[in-house]
Amino acid sequence: MKNLAKHLIKILGKDRVLTTREDCLCYSYDGTFRTGVPGVVVRPVSTDEVAAVMRLASKERIPVVPRGAGTGLSGGAVPQEGSLVIDLTSMNRIVKIDPAEMMAVVEPGVITAHLHKTVEKMGLFYPPDPSSASVSTIGGNIAECAGGPRGLKYGVTRDYVLGMEVVLAGGEVIQCGGQTVKNVSGYDLRGLFVGSEGTLGIITRANLRLIPKPQVRQTIRADFTTIEEAAGTITAIIGAGVIPSALEIMDDVTIRCVENFLRAGLPLDVEAILLIEVDGPAVSLPGQVSTIAALCKQCGAVRVKVAETEAEGAELWRARKAVSPAVVQVRPTKISEDATVPRSNVPAMIRGIKEIARKYHLVIAIFGHAGDGNLHPNILIDQSNPEEMERAEAAIEEIFKLALSLGGTLSGEHGIGLLKAPFLEMEFGKTGVAVMRRIKEALDPLGILNPGKIFGGMSS
Predict the structure, then answer these.
(1) Phi, psi of 216 (to 5 degrees)
(2) Which pTM does this prediction carry?
C-alpha cells in the first residue's frame, strides 16, 4: 500500500492522498451499519486525475470504491478492507446552466440541494429530491438512481440524466447520451450507468434535464384511524386524475417516534398520516387542493389540515423530515429498507410488515412514498445483540419475499449495494443475474470497481 500511495502522490500531490488510519476511518461507512476501512483515499479534482488513478488501480489490480457524501442506505459506498476510495466531493462545480436548453452541466460532487437552489433562482426546477438532498451529491444520486417524495409526479434521477462522462475500470473515458432530450443512437449506455452503483464506471460529469419551476405549491395533512382508509385515499386521489407532487405516509409507530422527538403535536390516536403536496400553476392549485381534501374526508380522514402559507407547509413537512433522527431514539441501530409494491398493494404490504414485526418481536417503523408504492420499513434494533440481529435478518428476508409476491421489487431507490445482494436472485432468477454479471465482466474484467456490491461476495 505504501508503494501505491507513492504513485498516487505523483498523480495527485501529497495533500490529496490520505493514508493514515484516522483519515481512512472517516471513509469506512455509509448510512448503514456496515463498515470497511480502506487502505488509501484519494481526492481528485478532474476527469483526467480520475482516469490516471484508474489506470494505476487497473495495473496494480487494486479494488476501487467511488464515493460521494456516503449517505447511501444499502452499503454501496462501504469500502472493501484495504481498498482504494476515490472521494469525488472535490469535483463540485456547476459547470453550466443553460436556460434555453433547460439543462445543467455538473460535476459529480455537486450537492443536490445546492443545485436545487441555484436553478430555482433562475425559474427552473430539478425535481429529484432524496431525503439526503442537503448533503448527498449528484454523482451518488445518479449511481444509485435516487428518488424521493416527488417521484410520484416527476419521476426519479434517471428521468433527468441526458448524458454523462464516465471513466471506465481501465481508465478510458467515454461519453454516454448527450445534451438532447431525444437520443436513440446506439445502445443506451446512459441508462446502463444510471443506478449501476459504481460497479461499471465512475461518473465525472453529467448533463441534467431541467423543467420550469412550478408557480406555487401547497401541503395537506390528513389523519386516519386505519391504514386501509389511508391507502384507499391514495388510490382515490390518483383515480380522480389529481397527481400530487408528493404523497407520503407515516404509520403509528413512526408517528409516536416523531412526536417523542419533536413534540410537534402529532396525533397519537390514529394509525396513519398522509402528507400530500400539490404544485403547479396558481390558477389550478385551489381546485386540486379542494378535491384532495374532499377525497380525504370521503375516505375516512378524521382530520384534514391545509397549509395556507409556506411557513405552515414547512411545519407540516418538518415531522416527515424528522423521521430518520426520530426513529434512532428508540434503538441504536436503524436498518432502512425500501421494498416497493404497486400502490394498490400498499395496504397489504403494510399489514404484512406489521405481522412480520410481531412474529419476530421487532419494532418496525413504516413510512415512505406511498403514492408510488415505495415504502421504507425501518427495523429498529441493537446491532450489538447477535440474537436480535438474527431475528432482524430473518424479518428482512420475509419483507422482501412479501414485496415480490405482491408484484414489487427489492428496491425503489436505495439500490442493492451490500445489504440486498444476497436476495437479487429472488427477483431476477439465475439467468437474469447471470446477464448482469456478464455486463459487469465486460466493462470491469478484473472486478476492481466496487467489488461485492449488487452481486455480493464482499466480507463484512
Answers:
(1) -145, 160
(2) 0.95
Question: Of all helices (H) and strands (E), which one includes residue 53?
Answer: helix 47-60
The residue type found at 65 is: V
DSSP state of 269: S
Q: From CA 428, how far away is CA 131, in angstroms rounded?
A: 28
The contacts of residue 403 (CB under 8 Å, 6+ apart) are 339, 340, 341, 349, 409, 410
Q: Tens digits of per-residue pLDDT, 54-73?
A: 999 999 999 999 999 999 99
pLDDT at res. 459: 44
Identify the sign of the CA torsion 329, 331, 337, 342: negative
Amino acid identity of 341? V
Distance separating alpha carbons of residues 306 and 316, to the nearest angstrom: 9
Per DSSP, the three-state class of 290 is helix
Dihedral angle computed from the Cα positions of residues 125, 131, 135 and 137, in that order, rounded to the nearest 10 degrees:
-60
Q: Where are the alpha helices (DSSP H) in 121-188?
A: 138-144, 151-154
CA distance readout (Å), 295 to 236, 251, 320, 374, 394: 7, 20, 22, 22, 39
pLDDT at 435: 97
Q: Kindly tell me if the per-residue pLDDT of 442 is higher than 70.
A: yes
Query: Cell 452503483 appears where?
Result: 197
Q: Which residues contact 400 (CB under 8 A, 6 or more apart)?
A: 339, 410, 420, 423, 426
Query: How many angstroms separate the CA atoms of 18 and 37, rounded?
Result: 12
User: Is 178 in contact with 163 (CB distance < 8 Å)?
Assistant: yes
Contact 31, 69 (CB under 8 A): no
pLDDT tens per residue across span 134-183: 999 999 999 999 999 999 999 999 999 999 999 999 999 999 999 999 99
Using the predicted structure, report yes or no on whether residue 460 has a pLDDT greater than 70: no
Q: State how far the Cα of 379 lies from the Cα of 348, in Å rounded to an integer.
A: 18
Q: Rounded to 10 degrees, what is the CA torsion of 11, 96, 156, 179?
A: -100
Burial class (CB in 10 A: 0-12, 13-18, 19+), 20: exposed
CA angle 315, 320, 326 (to 5 degrees): 110
Joined together, the cell numbers standing for residue 9 give: 502522490
Q: What is the pLDDT of residues 398-435, one digit of tens each?
A: 999 999 999 999 999 999 999 999 999 999 999 999 99
Q: Buried b / exposed e across 431-448, counting CB within 10 Å, b at 16+? A: eebeeeeeebeebbeebb
Q: H or E element: which one contains 253?
A: helix 252-262
Instruction: Give the pLDDT confidence of 101-129 residue by residue, as tens digits.
Output: 999 999 999 999 999 999 999 999 999 99
